[in-house]
Amino acid sequence: MAGHGGTGTERFRISAEDLHVRSDLRDRDFDSTDDLPSREQVVGQSRALGAVRLAVAVDRDGYNLYALGEPGSDRHGAMRQLLEEAAAQREVPSDWCYVHAFDDPQKPQALELPAGEGRRLRERMKQLIDDVWSSVPAAFESDEYRHLRSEIDEEFEERHRQALAEMAEDAERNGLRLLQTPGGFAFAPVRDGKVIDEEAFSELPEDEQETIRRRIAEFGERLAAHLRQLPAWQRERNERVRKLDRQVGVSAVGPFLEELKEGYRALEKASAYLEGVEQDLLAHLPDLINPEPAAPFPPQSGRRQRPKFLQRYEVNVVVDNSGLDAAPVIYEQHPVYHNVVGRIDHYAEFGSLVTDHRMIRAGALQRAGGGFLVMDADRLLREPFAWQALKRALSGREVTIQSLQQMLSLMTTVTIEPEPIPMTAKIVLVGERWLYYLLSEHDPEFSELFRVSADFSDVIDRDGGHSEELAALIAGMLRRGGLAPFSRDAVARVVEHSARLAGDADKLSARIRPLGDLLAEACHWAREAGRRRVDEEDVERALTEYEHRHDRIRERYREAIARRSILVDVTGEAVAQVNGLSVLQLGKYAFGHPTRITATVRVGDGSLLDIQREVELGGPIHSKGVLILGSLLGARYSREAPLSLSASLVFEQTYGGVEGDSASVAEFCSLVSALAEVPVRQAVAVTGSVNQHGRVQVVGGINEKVEGFFDVCADAGLTGDQGVVIPADNRKHLMLRRDVREAVEAGRFHVYAVDTVDEAIELLTGESAGVADRDGNYPAATVNGRAQKTLSGFSEGRARFVARQLDNVEKAANRNGNGNGSSDGDGK
Amino acid sequence: MATESDRRLSIAVALDPAAPLEGALRSALSLAGPSAALIGVFVQDTETAELERSGLAREVTTLGETRSIGGGRLTRQLAVRSRAVRLSFERGAASLGVQHSFEVLRGPGIEALRRRLEQLDALVISRAHRRAGVRSWYGLPVHRLVGEPGRMVLFVQEEWSSGRRVVLLPGAGERAAEVQALARRIAAAEGLEAVVLRGAETAAPAPGGFRSRPLARAMPAEVAAALGAEDARVLIIPREHPLAAPAAFAELLRRTDSSILLA
């Protein structure tokens, strides 16, 4: 080996400057965020924002919006600004009220009124009830009414009395007397002014008795005929009383209602409702004059108890837009069924649960009418029935409030069916991508109802002015949050951290929430240090503290390696043993660490045993990587003969699942080391995936992996030989920590970039990998050549083994053929 | 007429199952003062009983149906009613804390009452709920009671507790002062304002304790209108007043919902 610092490895080494892309904000002409404008709009999301604008502008069914992206990407903030701008261009939508339906009380009527009129109608109806309650009884207690009413009663009574009196007089003339009995009347014979008894009657001549009997019967019939017509008289009287009551009622109620109706003449439905109120009031005049108590045991206050039926004239304003100066933008944070579509409350009345139009409560769909309703898709879908209800409202274009208890037959009390309110809200769902694709795949209505998707990118380009925009956004966030200003370098550090979060030196993270947290925490540390302005060191402190709060598991790993509980060597050499690199993701925190990968080889049938997969600890992508290795080995070393290799690979001391193909370069190097019997430098770890042609490809988590190995080396003591081999295409993703960069700068640690596995082999072994000739043969002194030779030997050995086996089989067959005396003439 | 407060008035309440009892009892108390002793009387009309014995009569119910009277049904009905009204009366009187007794009067209807009235200071008689659509005062011809001299008869309407004033039609002569005093006492007992109805031309000041209300004519229609306007609980008419004549009085009773005391 030429030594790691030699010219052989120099060409792969990445300079310290290239391990991190500093923010160009450091060179900009501003002192602190006080010098920057405030930005409220998210940065670099023109695609998503264009989609939002489209959804907002197109006023057609189905143009609802799904904003998809990762949590923390400030989709809500972006949405809020655009929606509020759009809402400001729209007119304030109507108020909605529920009122009693006089033709079907079980189906309360929905009234649409201009904004602010709902509340006004409610107050005016309240006043009307007060007026009616005081004026109607007064009208019916007036002298005029009493007089007119007594005239009717008098006339009726007089007719009846007169008829009875005439009959009584006629009866007296015919020797009979009209007497009252407990159940009615009777005629009795009279002599000398007295009713005669049976004895006196029997002494009368026979013909006279007969005459009396006949007269009694005749008068009885006459009286019965008279009494039978009394109900008809009574009806006539009642009708006249009703007519009088109506006239008096109209005179008492009319002026109030006329004034009220005048104000709503232009609103057809409201006008019809008020007509209904008038007719109903007039029909209920008796209840106003002699009210049934609202409760069976009314309080003895001496005051007249208002009859319960007056409650039906109350107006329930379910959507009150009186306080708005633009269309509403509603954020429903708790999208349970009732909060979305509304609910019907009940109240207890003498042991029963009852309800009426006053108990109807609007949901977010009604309140957002004419405007926008924003909901979290995940929360909505988790709430039973809410998603179905939303879809029903969108496809039916109306919102129907239906009690869940009633829907599920959980409550048997009588309820109401409020008239649906038109669905005029535009719905904005904010959710993650997987949920969007899941809904698209499995819910056929989803694509119809949510035709616009606003895809918020997780990362944005670092150039194109986005750094400056992010700085302005930071300035805005600081001002809105009442935080201290950040110095220029502090802002630059935040932007650099954003690139690190993006995992790409050329990108910035679109996740604003972690940056917001960083700003707040850096402010805290600046305050702790007694600074009024946040400097870079405060940002660094915030990052360090954050890492410290989350790196307990990482520390355990490092400790286990340092104490040799996990065997990872960072010095020396070993055959068939390579330090691979893994990333462990724990919630929001990820860290890298080395893992020893070992290989064993022997003669076989070309099978490559992936022990991780065998014990079901390897994921499908990892298995795919291992299968590629088999193909790569065969293609490189055994083009003209079967790959007579049986090899096994294992991630030593891993007890959890392994997924991904980023260790495939390390695995290949381990196999080649085993085949060539060339030792591998343990001071160098390697990461990268490999294709069938030996090309090294990019992997994720490159920064965490490099830093993970650096930390383990630092724990053991940096020797100057240690370093990490990474895919060359991962260079652009490097945003390494300052201490790593400093170590590289000082030549105490190295990062190498390779394009091929051969380059990786050379870096790991310090020997030439070798280049194959036209026939695919590698020079014998190279690593590849030695590996090829071993495999060639395996092939020959396998051939010999097969020949021996065939020979043995033939001999056995011959023995068997002689032994049983049969022969088929073939002899095989 | 005895009105001395130290003398216990003898007041009977004519009991009718169809008439509200509470109003009758309260009005009787108001009339009698705190030392009242009430007699509940129930009339079993012997003429009605004769009907049953004659075997001739057939009862025509208020619904216009005809049925025979016999087999002791009428007698049983009267006995049942007698027990029922007695029970109600005794309970009502006891709840008001007033001394009481109960009598059954047997005789030819109004005649039985009239005879008993001769031994009393006053008779209280309630208006029954409408019987066959006609206001009924014990189912009796009222004018025959009105015609009795020297005794008070109080005709109580269905609602004694309603109305806010005690109204007096003033009489003349030596009894005028007594009737005024009676009106004042009832007004005080009931906590009501006392009003006197007087001709519009009357220049003399209203008697002490009374507010004056002009009355164009002392005719049933005008008086009834004045009672309605005043929301009168009770009208007190001296027996000598022209409106106390049986026909005018009966008409007035028909026209007003206020109770009337013939004093």
Question: Could you please describe the fold and organization of this structure?
Answer:
The complex is a heterodimer of chains A (828) and B (263). With 828 residues, chain A is an alpha/beta fold. Chain A is built from 29 helices and 30 strands. Chain A is 47% helix and 16% strand. In chain A, the strands form ten sheets. Chain A has a seven-stranded mixed beta sheet with strand order 23-24-22-21-26-29-30, sandwiched between helices. Mean pLDDT of chain B is 82; it is low at 1-5. The longest helix of chain B is centred in the first third of the chain and has 24 residues, at 73-96. Chain B is 36% helix and 28% strand. In chain B, the strands form three sheets. A ten-stranded mixed beta sheet of chain B has the order 5-2-1-6-9-14-13-10-11-12, with helices on both faces. Chain B has a two-stranded antiparallel sheet with strand order 3-4. Chain B contains eight helices and 14 strands. At the A-B interface, α5, β4, β5, β6 and α7 of A face α2, β3, α3 and α7 of B. β5 (184-191) of chain A pairs antiparallel with β3 (58-61) of chain B, so a sheet runs across the interface.
List the helices and strands and how they pair.
The complex is a heterodimer of chains A (828) and B (263).
Chain A: H1 7-10, H2 46-57, E1 65-68, H3 75-89, E2 95-99, E3 109-113, H4 117-140, H5 143-173, E4 176-181, E5 184-191, E6 194-195, H6 198-202, H7 206-228, H8 230-263, H9 268-283, H10 285-289, E7 316-319, E8 329-332, H11 337-341, E9 343-344, E10 347-349, E11 352-354, E12 360-361, H12 364-367, E13 372-376, H13 377-382, H14 386-396, E14 398-399, H15 404-407, E15 421-422, E16 426-431, H16 433-442, H17 444-449, E17 452-455, E18 459-461, H18 466-480, H19 488-502, E19 507-509, H20 512-528, H21 536-550, H22 552-562, E20 573-575, E21 577-586, E22 589-603, E23 608-610, H23 611-614, H24 620-637, E24 645-651, H25 664-676, E25 679-681, E26 684-686, E27 689-690, E28 696-697, H26 702-716, E29 723-727, H27 738-745, E30 750-754, H28 757-765, H29 783-820
Parallel strand pairs in A: 1-16, 1-17, 8-13, 13-16, 21-26, 23-24, 26-29, 29-30
Antiparallel strand pairs in A: 2-3, 2-7, 4-5, 5-6, 9-12, 10-11, 14-15, 18-19, 20-25, 21-22, 22-24, 27-28
Helix pairs in contact in A: 2-3, 4-8, 5-7, 5-8, 8-9, 19-21, 20-21, 25-28, 25-29
Chain B: E1 10-14, H1 21-32, E2 37-45, H2 46-54, E3 58-61, E4 66-68, H3 73-96, E5 99-107, H4 110-117, E6 122-126, E7 128-131, E8 134-136, H5 142-146, E9 152-156, E10 165-168, H6 175-190, E11 193-199, E12 211-215, H7 220-230, E13 232-237, H8 246-255, E14 259-262
Parallel strand pairs in B: 1-2, 1-6, 2-5, 6-9, 10-11, 10-13, 11-12, 13-14
Antiparallel strand pairs in B: 3-4, 7-8, 9-14
Helix pairs in contact in B: 1-3, 7-8
